[in-house]
């Protein structure tokens, strides 16, 4: 099995878990519920999609198809840094759950397409992360941590914001689903 196939399989497994263990089980009307110190499922869905879309952009792939789904929404939703914060932001109220879900799944489809055509040799190459983040409109003062964290090879962008970060938050969403009393394994 080549690396590209393995990466696509990893992403597919995570997206399947997101779809079947979260989105198909947790009703849309409760996906905004939050527990003390936590975020809602809808925030986590938006958050991972925004990070993955930004990583695609920095890696040189334009997620325009996904971005078009957000066209016409409140500017706070479409601002360059919206969704990047770990803590849920008030503007989430301006995007309906079905559109949010469609957006996230579209971004993950674009990540899948990127991974399926990934050339292993490019994984060790470090893209111009700072230039890519600046070009995407990400403020270096506010998001300095992102500039330093992502300043690595393209392989890091694949391992963390495109796959690992998504997997991590899908686990969080499953935990929230369980706290909501919606575990199918009870």
UniProtKB/TrEMBL annotation:
InterPro entries: DinB/YfiT-like. SUPFAM superfamilies: DinB/YfiT-like putative metalloenzymes. It comes from the Bacteria. Gene3D superfamilies: dinb family like domain. This is DinB family protein. It comes from Lysinimonas soli.
